[in-house]
Amino acid sequence: MSKNIAIDGPAGAGKSTIARRLAKELGYIYVDTGAMYRAMGLFFTTRGVDPHNKERICAAAKDASVTLSYENGEQHVLLNGEDVTGKIRTEEAGKMASATSGFMPVREHLTNLQKELAARENVVMDGRDIGTCVLPNADLKVYLTASSSVRGERRYKELVEKGMPADLDVIIADIEKRDEADMNREVSPLKQAEDAVLLDSSDLTIDQVVEKMMEMCKEKDLIS
Ligand code: DC
To answer: How many domains are contained in the chain?
Structure first.
C-alpha cells in the first residue's frame, strides 16, 4: 500500500518548500494541490468569469481539466493540455484560486485526482484540506503554520530578492484576508485535523522544520 503524508496550513507557512524537501529526502512524489486550484483560477480568469458568480463558476468548471505530470521529479500542472506551471505563480492567480476553491464542482474534480494519485504512489501532499478531507487516513498529518507577520516578511523578502515591487503592510493584510477566506468558507475550510501534529515554524529555519518532520517520519516508519 502507498504511504501518504499530508501537510496543511495557511498561505505562506512554507508548506511547499518543506513538502518538496521532505519528498526528495524520502523518495516520495510531491503533490502541490494549491497549484491545481491556481490552474482552475487561471481558467476562470482567462474566460472572464466573475469569481463570485457561483452559477457561472460551476457551469464553467465543467470545461476545465487539470492534470499533473512529473519531469525530473518536478510537478507540472496542465490545464486542458497546456502546461501552465509558470503562469500560475502570481499573486492574482493565488487570490483567484482562493475565491473559486470554495465551490463544490471545482473541488470535486481536483480532490478525485488527488485521491487517485495518493492511492497509487507514496506522496507528500500539501494544501488546505488534505488531512481533513482528501487523505483522512494519511500515515502522518502535519499542520504547518507561522504568525501572519512572519509569513508576510518571508513573502516580502522573496519578492525583493526577485527585484519585484513589495509593500510589507499590504502583503500581511493580503495574507490575513486569504486566511480569513480559506478558514471560513463552507466547503472544506482550512483547519487542523484532530490527529494532525501542529508545527509552528515562526522561529524555525527550513532545515529545522525538515529535521523535525524527518523525525516524525522515522517514528511512523515512513522511511524506506
Ligand atoms: O497554497 P496556495 O497558496 O498555492 O493555494 C492557493 C489557494 O487555493 C488557497 O488560497 C486556497 C486554495 N486551496 C484549497 O482550497 N485547497 C487546497 N488543498 C489547496 C489550495
So the answer is: 1
State pTM to two decimals.
0.94
* Domain around 154: 4-215
Do the beta carbons of residue 111 and residue 65 sit within 8 Å?
no
Residue 149 cell numbers, joined: 507577520
Q: How far is the CA of 35 from the centre of ligand 1 (A)?
A: 7
Other C-beta atoms within 10 Å of 122: how many? 18
Nearest Cα to Cα of residue 11 among 43, 34, 30: 34
Query: What is the predicted pLDDT for the residue at 224?
Result: 79
CA-proximal residue: ligand 1, atom 12 (nearest): 98
Residue-wise pLDDT tens digits, 139-164: 999 999 999 999 999 999 989 998 98
- For residues 27 and 122, the answer to whether their CB atoms sit within 8 Å is yes
